[in-house]
Specification:
By secondary structure, the protein is mainly alpha-helical. Helices cover 56% and strands 6% of the residues. The strands form 4 sheets. It has a 3-stranded antiparallel sheet with strand order 4-6-7. A two-stranded parallel ribbon has the order 1-2. A two-stranded antiparallel ribbon has the order 3-5. The radius of gyration is 26 Å and the shape is elongated.
Length: 508
């Protein structure tokens, strides 16, 4: 499989394929022609001695310093070396691959003025699995993700560090082992390599896909819990959602109804006096999870625009103009990431409350902590503690980083997006939410062991998928591995695929 980059049509699905190594990337021939045309403008500006920001001037506070022609190549190296000061643990390999692909696609718009050979080297590194080592902290999300992107650019220059064939090696050694040659950066190219939002956009896109899978799994967990708690499906009546037709709520309610079709549990208490209304985390699942779905789909729109944009400064146009502006500013992505972080936390916090209800015998009318040997055994007592801990941690990460700007570059860059901080928090909250949903699957499946009637078709399929990995709890045992196994079921989508085979489930 090959993904051709033209700067206009890259989809999140394409990014996922390349980031995970399932597809290679190539430059579209028409995009290469655009690159050549814009490069001629850059070379003309330099040859004629016109002053243009970033081509032959310093950057940031040094924007008024004109660089002589013989120093322009050195300027590019200095920009990369001085910007490569990110710190902390390295970013996941797939995030770095996504960054490389996205930067190449931004160049393919033909507005950065870089040479085609620079883009080809970036894609060759990607296809030969030369993965620059990129520390995750250090970007303020304006003038792009400068520090993280600089660590990628170092390797293009034959410097820095990279992972190749599972080993951490100098950048030059990684290029040599892959049969590639480093590039000497020319006018504008150093600045172009770092002036983008590719770290926050790569993380946002990759973890958005996981957040949507967690949301789908959370819908499955809802109906498993509802069946175990002998709840009612009347709150999913389609007429309610015709009266308030938010897209997400309509979609979630449809899924919940589909999974409950054929339920003997629902029939068993349909005419038995019971509570008229379920707790919010059951009754309001379409409204709450639907709102999260709407927020995540908004984020998807923002990310796909950003993925196919000229994210750089200055931009170079065919008419010879070199225009300095703010397309590198990460605020559009930062706001979307902060919104998605909160929406994803809601999914997990909502699930934790159902876990608490499942294990509380006073509320569930099931055995306390889902064990018949109370006192001697603790059953599912402590998984709820873990879920509460994860929900609390996520709650602390929901303050919007985009609300907390700090200035840089001697106040020339006086309002930054902090989008990379938003992206890192989003990553953590998605991972926490996956585990909380896994804990609900664990507890809801255990609760269904006490059911006297068969659940709905979708619920039965989900129960069988859980039991294919995790046996019912008969005696106390360590549950960490069980939770991680079920988290894998959420992350790889196999839980939802099992449900899809049995009922009309529509993925987010």
């Amino acid at each position: 499989m090959k993904v051709e980059l033209n700067g206009r049509e890259l989809r999140i699905e394409d990014l996922l394929s390349v980031a995970k190594g399932a597809a290679e990337a190539a430059l579209d021939p028409e995009a290469e022609e655009r690159l050549r045309a814009c490069r001629q403008v850059v070379e003309s500006v330099v040859a004629r001695g016109r002053t243009a920001y970033g081509l032959n001037t310093g950057v940031g506070e040094f924007r008024t310093v004109v660089i002589p022609p013989e120093k322009i190549v050195q300027l590019q190296k200095n920009l990369i070396r001085s910007s490569a000061c990110a710190v902390g643990p390295p970013l996941p390999e797939e995030v770095v691959r996504g960054m490389m692909l996205l930067r190449a696609n931004a160049f393919a718009t033909g507005r950065s003025g870089v040479r085609p050979e620079l883009v080809r080297l970036l894609l060759d590194m990607l296809n030969h699995r030369v993965h620059p080592l990129v520390p995750r902290q250090g970007s303020v999300g304006s003038s792009g993700d400068l520090a993280p992107l600089a660590h990628i650019a170092l390797v293009l220059m034959g410097e820095g560090e990279a992972l190749f064939d599972g080993r951490r090696v100098p950048g030059a050694s990684a290029l040599e082992a892959a049969g590639l040659q480093p590039l000497e950066l020319q006018a504008k190219e150093g600045l172009a390599l770092i002036n983008g939002t590719q770290m926050m956009t790569s993380m946002g896109a990759l973890y958005l896909a996981r957040a949507l899978r967690a949301l789908d799994a959370a819908q499955v967990a809802v109906v498993m819990s509802l069946e175990a708690l002998k709840g009612t499906s009347s709150s999913f009546d389609p007429r309610l959602f015709e009266a308030r037709p938010h897209f997400g709520a309509v979609a979630v309610a449809s899924n919940l109804r589909a999974m409950l079709e054929g339920s003997e549990i629902l029939k068993s208490h349909a005419h038995v006096p019971h509570e008229v209304q379920d707790a919010y985390t059951l009754r309001c699942a379409p409204q709450v999870l639907g709102a999260s779905l709407d927020a995540l789909l908004y984020g998807r729109k923002v990310l796909e625009v950003e993925m196919n944009s000229a994210v750089d400064n200055p931009l170079v146009f065919e008419d010879g103009d070199v225009v300095s502006g703010g397309n590198f500013h990460g605020m559009p992505v930062a706001l979307a990431l902060d919104h998605m972080t909160l929406a994803t936390h809601v999914i997990g916090a909502f699930a934790e409350r159902r876990v608490a209800r499942l294990v509380d015998g006073k509320l569930s009318h099931l055995p306390h902590f889902l064990t018949t040997s109370k006192g001697l055994e603790s059953g599912m007592m402590i998984p709820q503690y873990t879920a509460a801990s994860l929900a609390s941690e996520s709650k602390g990460k929901c303050f919007p980083a985009s609300a907390d700007s700090l200035p840089t570059s001697a106040n020339q860059e006086d309002y930054n997006s902090m989008g990379s901080v938003s992206a890192l928090k989003f990553m953590d909250v998605v991972e926490n939410t996956e585990r909380i949903v896994a804990i609900e699957l664990l507890c809801a499946s255990q609760a269904l062991e006490f059911a006297r009637f068969a659940p709905g078709r979708g619920v039965r399929a989900a129960y069988d998928a859980v039991r294919s990995l995790v046996p019912a709890l008969s005696d106390d045992r360590p549950l960490s591995k069980d939770i991680e196994s079920l988290r894998d079921l959420v992350v790889d989508g196999s839980l939802v695929r099992a449900v899809e085979r049995e009922c009309r489930f529509r993925r987010s």
